Amino acid sequence: MLSPADPHLTTRPPTSAQGAGRSPVCHAAGLTLAAIARVLSGASVRWISSQPDTCQRVYFSNHTSHLDALLIWSSLPRSVRERTRPVAAKDYWSRGAVRRWLAEKVFDALLIDRTDIKVHQSPVDLMLREIGDTKSLIVFPEGSRSATGEIGEFKSGLYYLSKKRPELELVPVHVDNLNRVLPRGEFLPVPMLSCITFGPPLWLEQGEPKLDFLARARRAVMALKES
Amino acid sequence: MNDPRTLALIVGVLALLAIVTAVGQFLRRHPDRGLDPAAIRSFNSRIRGWWIMCTVLAAAFWLGTTATVVLFGLVSFWALREFITLTPTRLGDHRALFWVFFAFTPAHYVLVGYDRYDVFSVFLPLYGTLFVLARVAIAGDSKRFLERTAKIQAGLMVCVYCLSFAAALLQLPVPTAAATEAAAAAAEPVTSATTPANFRLLFFLILLVQFADCMQYVWSRMIGRRLVAASVSSNRTWEGLLGSAVSTSLLASALWWAAPPYQPWQAALAGFVISLMGFAGGMTMSAIKRDRGVTDYGTLVTGHGGVLDRIDSTCFAAPVFYHITLLVADVAVR
To answer: Which pTM value belongs to this model?
Structure first.
């Protein structure tokens, strides 16, 4: 499979916080699953006006399939992947021992409770607390998988995330064709070719209204589809 | 691999490849000859494709029949992947596609590997078709039903069924002189074990297909005036088709010694037909690509090689060459 072999990649020594936290079994399981997903989805990875980097980032992507987070995670270079955590829905990923093990131990996912959002314990605060000042996140601002393949309106989490930590790089990601590999409601994948595109980072402008910012972020993802 | 004819064929092909590579590199370094740089680039990328093709084939030959059948199976799988990715499908096709990819394609190649011509020759056209029709119907989405099932069938037919005949050449019972004598002595029918002659047949087919492709381009460039179908392909002309058919016949008759059962005139006929079928394959794939608004399967998903672009002519030529060889050798399979 194609790997984003990038000579300009800044390789900083990984902080051992996570590497030590995961057992070798979980680590191997992660690598294996990532490899299987890459082969099945024939994913090619493109970086457009953008470079892989280990700096703190929030990758935000359209959401079409359960494989999205796994594919994005596995298409990052290893040094970046080590410090990137997907954000996933607790109601789905904590059901059953296998899913919970995958989410918590293998992908080190950050599980968010979609059904029970409290004011004092908002998902954004939780995310910011969990990533500290080293980790990056993969988020799906549409909130849930789109059934049609169209990109839905973005939820406001991305805005609040950026408002509280304006220095975080927001990297748009477009996942193409993965909804045909594993559509909503199916569990057997069809090995079609898919493509993951990373775009140039963007930031929240000073005083930019919430709706404008969310629309701009959504356009950034859509623009990658055309390119 | 150590019989003189195989060696001669391989050395000849390598020498030819070395020469065209040198020419391609020379043209690339001297862009001031008034030649279209895009044409030189595509020429060089084609040469690169040939080297890859040659290396992979040589490796498979060296590893044996099973490895070669597996290799062709993988190429089919990848080509079908490109074909289906390009084809618009609906959610109702998903389950049918899963079985097409993971059950029908492998099963077909297993039958080819076990040399069950009697079964594999009908397996996909008959059971594959019935399965796709029924499975899509059961999925409960009747919108444009015939159109959708036809697309899946077309993909299976071209990418899997047709291409597998190239691999099946390896188990064709070719009556070489020695084998016939031995069989006559033992009073047994000719066995279908793979001989170097079988590998030469496969090599002969691929070489002629590639040559025909090239000649079509060259003749079209030199004297091409009348386009066959302007809305399908902007560089395939009647002159190119004719020129390629004649030149391929000539090369085939010159190489008749490499393909065991053939006499020179029969080889010329085979070359002629291969050239026509390669043309048909190229036109068919062009039509599909034009309809989907892409120039080649490789650009469909950036970063992929476009396997289907390289094998479209081979897919169409392989079954015809297989059957012509059967007739020429005057043998019955099973």
So the answer is: 0.84
